[in-house]
Design brief:
This is ATP-binding protein. It comes from Dictyobacter kobayashii. By secondary structure, this protein is α/β, with parallel strands linked by helices. The chain has a single domain, classed as P-loop containing nucleotide triphosphate hydrolases (Rossmann fold), CATH 3.40.50.300. The chain contains ten helices and twelve strands. It has a six-stranded mixed sheet with strand order 8-9-10-3-11-12, with helices on both faces. Helix 4 runs parallel beside helix 6. The structure holds adenosine-5'-diphosphate. Adenosine-5'-diphosphate binds next to strand 2 and helix 2. Adenosine-5'-diphosphate (ADP) binds next to strand 2 and helix 2.
Protein backbone atom coordinates (compact mmCIF):
# COMPACT_ATOMS: atom_id res chain seq x y z
CA UNK A 1 0.00 0.00 0.00
CA UNK A 2 1.31 3.43 -0.85
CA UNK A 3 1.02 6.36 1.54
CA UNK A 4 2.30 8.86 -0.95
CA UNK A 5 0.31 12.08 -1.03
CA UNK A 6 -1.05 12.71 -4.48
CA UNK A 7 -1.72 16.03 -6.13
CA UNK A 8 -5.45 15.27 -5.82
CA UNK A 9 -5.12 14.80 -2.06
CA UNK A 10 -3.39 18.14 -1.77
CA UNK A 11 -6.06 19.82 -3.83
CA UNK A 12 -8.73 18.25 -1.67
CA UNK A 13 -6.98 19.38 1.50
CA UNK A 14 -6.49 22.88 0.30
CA UNK A 15 -10.08 23.36 -0.64
CA UNK A 16 -11.73 21.57 2.24
CA UNK A 17 -13.22 23.51 5.11
CA UNK A 18 -11.79 23.51 8.62
CA UNK A 19 -14.71 25.49 10.05
CA UNK A 20 -18.27 25.79 8.86
CA UNK A 21 -21.25 27.26 10.62
CA UNK A 22 -24.73 26.94 9.19
CA UNK A 23 -27.38 29.43 10.21
CA UNK A 24 -25.81 29.86 13.61
CA UNK A 25 -28.07 31.51 16.17
CA UNK A 26 -27.06 32.67 19.63
CA UNK A 27 -29.14 34.69 22.08
CA UNK A 28 -28.44 36.13 25.49
CA UNK A 29 -31.96 36.48 26.88
CA UNK A 30 -33.84 38.68 24.40
CA UNK A 31 -30.64 39.89 22.80
CA UNK A 32 -29.95 38.06 19.55
CA UNK A 33 -26.19 38.11 19.18
CA UNK A 34 -25.70 35.80 16.18
CA UNK A 35 -28.58 35.89 13.77
CA UNK A 36 -28.21 33.12 11.20
CA UNK A 37 -24.47 33.24 10.63
CA UNK A 38 -22.90 31.17 7.83
CA UNK A 39 -19.18 31.34 8.40
CA UNK A 40 -16.46 29.22 6.93
CA UNK A 41 -12.70 28.87 7.06
CA UNK A 42 -10.70 26.82 4.63
CA UNK A 43 -7.78 24.72 5.75
CA UNK A 44 -4.65 26.86 5.91
CA UNK A 45 -6.54 30.15 5.77
CA UNK A 46 -6.15 33.09 8.13
CA UNK A 47 -9.58 34.65 8.48
CA UNK A 48 -9.86 37.98 10.28
CA UNK A 49 -13.20 39.03 11.74
CA UNK A 50 -13.78 42.77 12.09
CA UNK A 51 -16.76 44.90 13.05
CA UNK A 52 -18.09 47.32 15.65
CA UNK A 53 -18.06 46.51 19.33
CA UNK A 54 -21.05 44.37 20.25
CA UNK A 55 -21.56 42.97 16.75
CA UNK A 56 -21.02 39.37 17.92
CA UNK A 57 -17.42 38.66 16.94
CA UNK A 58 -16.25 37.28 20.27
CA UNK A 59 -19.43 35.28 20.71
CA UNK A 60 -18.92 33.70 17.28
CA UNK A 61 -15.41 32.66 18.29
CA UNK A 62 -16.57 31.30 21.65
CA UNK A 63 -19.33 29.29 19.98
CA UNK A 64 -16.78 27.66 17.68
CA UNK A 65 -15.25 25.67 20.51
CA UNK A 66 -18.44 25.45 22.52
CA UNK A 67 -17.53 27.94 25.23
CA UNK A 68 -21.09 29.12 24.53
CA UNK A 69 -24.10 26.92 23.90
CA UNK A 70 -25.91 27.81 20.72
CA UNK A 71 -29.62 28.33 20.14
CA UNK A 72 -29.83 27.27 16.53
CA UNK A 73 -27.88 26.10 13.51
CA UNK A 74 -24.82 23.94 13.40
CA UNK A 75 -21.06 24.23 13.72
CA UNK A 76 -18.59 21.84 12.15
CA UNK A 77 -14.86 21.74 12.75
CA UNK A 78 -12.94 19.53 10.36
CA UNK A 79 -16.24 17.97 9.36
CA UNK A 80 -17.26 17.10 12.94
CA UNK A 81 -20.34 18.56 14.57
CA UNK A 82 -19.26 20.72 17.54
CA UNK A 83 -20.87 20.54 20.97
CA UNK A 84 -23.86 18.44 19.97
CA UNK A 85 -24.74 15.07 18.51
CA UNK A 86 -27.76 13.82 16.67
CA UNK A 87 -30.14 11.66 18.66
CA UNK A 88 -33.41 10.51 17.10
CA UNK A 89 -33.26 13.35 14.62
CA UNK A 90 -32.68 15.97 17.33
CA UNK A 91 -29.53 17.66 18.56
CA UNK A 92 -28.51 16.96 22.12
CA UNK A 93 -25.47 18.35 23.86
CA UNK A 94 -22.42 16.17 23.42
CA UNK A 95 -20.61 14.43 26.27
CA UNK A 96 -18.01 16.36 28.24
CA UNK A 97 -15.36 13.93 27.06
CA UNK A 98 -16.12 14.61 23.40
CA UNK A 99 -16.26 18.36 23.97
CA UNK A 100 -12.91 18.26 25.80
CA UNK A 101 -11.41 16.23 22.97
CA UNK A 102 -12.61 18.75 20.40
CA UNK A 103 -11.25 21.64 22.50
CA UNK A 104 -7.85 19.97 22.80
CA UNK A 105 -7.56 20.30 18.99
CA UNK A 106 -8.45 23.98 18.92
CA UNK A 107 -6.11 26.59 20.39
CA UNK A 108 -7.80 29.60 21.96
CA UNK A 109 -5.90 32.76 22.79
CA UNK A 110 -7.86 35.18 24.96
CA UNK A 111 -7.61 38.91 25.41
CA UNK A 112 -6.31 38.28 28.93
CA UNK A 113 -3.44 35.86 28.91
CA UNK A 114 -4.79 33.42 31.51
CA UNK A 115 -1.43 31.88 32.32
CA UNK A 116 -1.08 29.82 35.48
CA UNK A 117 0.45 32.39 37.87
CA UNK A 118 2.33 29.82 39.96
CA UNK A 119 3.98 28.13 36.99
CA UNK A 120 6.97 29.26 34.93
CA UNK A 121 6.68 29.97 31.22
CA UNK A 122 7.94 26.47 30.41
CA UNK A 123 5.67 24.83 33.00
CA UNK A 124 2.67 26.67 31.53
CA UNK A 125 3.46 25.27 28.09
CA UNK A 126 4.05 21.65 29.11
CA UNK A 127 1.04 21.32 31.44
CA UNK A 128 -1.64 20.26 28.93
CA UNK A 129 0.45 18.06 26.62
CA UNK A 130 1.57 16.06 29.67
CA UNK A 131 -1.71 15.93 31.57
CA UNK A 132 -4.28 16.00 28.77
CA UNK A 133 -2.44 14.33 25.88
CA UNK A 134 -0.29 12.21 28.21
CA UNK A 135 2.79 12.73 26.07
CA UNK A 136 6.21 11.83 27.50
CA UNK A 137 7.59 14.68 29.61
CA UNK A 138 11.06 14.86 28.01
CA UNK A 139 9.58 15.13 24.50
CA UNK A 140 7.10 17.76 25.64
CA UNK A 141 9.86 19.84 27.25
CA UNK A 142 11.95 19.64 24.11
CA UNK A 143 9.04 20.82 22.00
CA UNK A 144 8.16 23.57 24.50
CA UNK A 145 11.68 24.95 24.12
CA UNK A 146 11.30 25.01 20.34
CA UNK A 147 8.01 26.89 20.77
CA UNK A 148 9.57 29.37 23.21
CA UNK A 149 12.23 30.05 20.62
CA UNK A 150 9.57 30.47 17.96
CA UNK A 151 7.85 33.18 20.00
CA UNK A 152 11.19 34.78 20.87
CA UNK A 153 11.29 33.87 24.56
CA UNK A 154 14.02 31.26 24.90
CA UNK A 155 15.60 33.24 27.72
CA UNK A 156 12.36 33.35 29.73
CA UNK A 157 11.59 29.67 30.23
CA UNK A 158 12.06 29.88 34.01
CA UNK A 159 10.24 33.19 34.45
CA UNK A 160 6.91 33.39 36.25
CA UNK A 161 4.14 35.36 34.54
CA UNK A 162 4.38 38.34 36.92
CA UNK A 163 7.98 38.85 35.78
CA UNK A 164 6.91 39.01 32.12
CA UNK A 165 5.44 41.94 30.20
CA UNK A 166 1.92 41.63 28.80
CA UNK A 167 3.34 41.01 25.34
CA UNK A 168 5.64 38.29 26.64
CA UNK A 169 2.78 36.67 28.58
CA UNK A 170 0.64 36.66 25.47
CA UNK A 171 3.45 35.05 23.48
CA UNK A 172 3.73 32.34 26.15
CA UNK A 173 -0.04 31.87 25.86
CA UNK A 174 0.33 31.38 22.11
CA UNK A 175 3.17 28.88 22.63
CA UNK A 176 1.02 27.07 25.19
CA UNK A 177 -1.83 26.77 22.69
CA UNK A 178 0.56 25.58 19.97
CA UNK A 179 1.99 22.90 22.27
CA UNK A 180 -1.25 20.97 21.83
CA UNK A 181 -0.56 20.83 18.10
CA UNK A 182 -3.96 22.32 17.26
CA UNK A 183 -5.56 22.04 13.85
CA UNK A 184 -7.13 25.47 14.33
CA UNK A 185 -6.16 28.57 16.32
CA UNK A 186 -8.70 31.14 17.53
CA UNK A 187 -7.51 34.58 18.65
CA UNK A 188 -9.95 36.75 20.56
CA UNK A 189 -8.68 40.33 20.58
CA UNK A 190 -5.31 38.95 21.60
CA UNK A 191 -3.64 42.37 21.60
CA UNK A 192 -6.46 44.55 22.98
CA UNK A 193 -5.29 44.44 26.59
CA UNK A 194 -1.68 45.30 25.73
CA UNK A 195 0.14 48.59 25.98
CA UNK A 196 0.51 49.93 22.43
CA UNK A 197 4.26 49.36 22.31
CA UNK A 198 3.77 45.63 23.00
CA UNK A 199 1.14 44.97 20.32
CA UNK A 200 3.64 44.57 17.47
CA UNK A 201 5.60 41.70 19.01
CA UNK A 202 2.42 39.63 19.42
CA UNK A 203 1.11 40.46 15.94
CA UNK A 204 4.48 39.41 14.56
CA UNK A 205 4.11 35.92 16.04
CA UNK A 206 0.55 35.69 14.70
CA UNK A 207 1.70 36.81 11.27
CA UNK A 208 4.43 34.18 11.26
CA UNK A 209 1.89 31.48 12.13
CA UNK A 210 -0.35 32.59 9.28
CA UNK A 211 2.60 32.53 6.87
CA UNK A 212 3.39 28.99 7.99
CA UNK A 213 -0.11 27.95 6.97
CA UNK A 214 -1.79 27.61 10.36
CA UNK A 215 -5.56 27.72 10.02
CA UNK A 216 -6.67 30.63 12.16
CA UNK A 217 -9.59 32.87 13.01
CA UNK A 218 -8.57 36.24 14.39
CA UNK A 219 -10.96 38.72 15.97
CA UNK A 220 -9.13 42.03 16.10
CA UNK A 221 -9.34 45.79 15.92
CA UNK A 222 -5.92 45.89 14.25
CA UNK A 223 -6.91 46.86 10.73
CA UNK A 224 -3.30 46.85 9.51
CA UNK A 225 -3.04 43.19 10.48
CA UNK A 226 -6.33 42.40 8.77
CA UNK A 227 -5.24 44.14 5.60
CA UNK A 228 -1.75 42.61 5.47
CA UNK A 229 -2.16 39.12 6.88
CA UNK A 230 -5.73 37.95 6.28
CA UNK A 231 -6.53 35.66 3.39
CA UNK A 232 -10.15 36.50 3.97
CA UNK A 233 -11.86 39.27 5.95
CA UNK A 234 -15.30 38.96 7.49
CA UNK A 235 -17.16 42.13 8.46
CA UNK A 236 -19.85 41.68 11.10
CA UNK A 237 -22.46 44.17 12.21
CA UNK A 238 -25.54 43.71 14.38
CA UNK A 239 -25.27 39.94 14.77
CA UNK A 240 -24.74 39.20 11.09
CA UNK A 241 -22.01 38.85 8.51
CA UNK A 242 -22.56 41.89 6.35
CA UNK A 243 -19.75 41.39 3.86
CA UNK A 244 -16.75 39.13 3.38
CA UNK A 245 -13.95 38.70 0.89
CA UNK A 246 -10.26 39.24 0.30
CA UNK A 247 -8.76 42.23 2.16
CA UNK A 248 -8.48 44.32 -1.04
CA UNK A 249 -12.21 43.96 -1.59
CA UNK A 250 -13.18 44.90 1.95
CA UNK A 251 -10.66 47.69 2.48
CA UNK A 252 -10.44 49.23 -0.99
CA UNK A 253 -13.45 48.28 -3.05
CA UNK A 254 -16.38 47.76 -0.71
CA UNK A 255 -19.67 49.07 -2.05
CA UNK A 256 -21.43 48.22 1.20
CA UNK A 257 -22.49 51.27 3.15
CA UNK A 258 -22.17 49.62 6.56
CA UNK A 259 -18.66 48.35 5.78
CA UNK A 260 -17.58 51.73 4.46
CA UNK A 261 -19.04 53.51 7.46
CA UNK A 262 -17.24 51.26 9.89
CA UNK A 263 -13.91 51.52 8.08
CA UNK A 264 -14.35 55.26 7.78
CA UNK A 265 -14.56 55.43 11.58
CA UNK A 266 -11.62 53.12 12.39
CA UNK A 267 -9.05 53.79 9.68
P1 LIG B 1 -18.00 41.88 19.90
O1 LIG B 1 -16.98 40.84 20.12
O2 LIG B 1 -18.30 42.11 18.45
O3 LIG B 1 -17.70 43.17 20.62
P2 LIG B 1 -19.66 40.26 21.60
O4 LIG B 1 -19.76 38.93 20.96
O5 LIG B 1 -18.69 40.41 22.73
O6 LIG B 1 -19.38 41.37 20.48
O7 LIG B 1 -21.06 40.70 22.15
C1 LIG B 1 -22.23 40.71 21.35
C2 LIG B 1 -23.42 41.04 22.20
O8 LIG B 1 -23.64 40.00 23.14
C3 LIG B 1 -23.28 42.33 23.02
O9 LIG B 1 -24.52 42.97 23.03
C4 LIG B 1 -22.91 41.80 24.38
O10 LIG B 1 -23.36 42.70 25.37
C5 LIG B 1 -23.69 40.52 24.45
N1 LIG B 1 -23.04 39.51 25.34
C6 LIG B 1 -21.83 38.94 25.14
N2 LIG B 1 -21.56 38.05 26.10
C7 LIG B 1 -22.64 38.03 26.94
C8 LIG B 1 -22.97 37.31 28.12
N3 LIG B 1 -22.15 36.39 28.64
N4 LIG B 1 -24.16 37.57 28.68
C9 LIG B 1 -25.02 38.48 28.16
N5 LIG B 1 -24.77 39.20 27.05
C10 LIG B 1 -23.59 38.98 26.43
Amino acid sequence: MTTEITHDDLQKNQTSEMVRTEQLVKRFGDNIVLNGVDFSVKRGQAVVVIGPSGSGKTTLLRCLNHLEKIDGGRIYIDGQLVGYREQNGRLVEDSEVNIARMRSQVGFVFQRFNLFAHKTALENIIEAPIHVLRQPKNEVIERARVLLEKVGLSDKEDSYPHRLSGGQQQRVAIARALAMNPKLMLFDEATSALDPELVGEVLKVMRQLAEEGMTMVVVTHEMGFARDVADHVVFMDKAQIVEQGPPEQIFNESQNERTRNFLGRVL
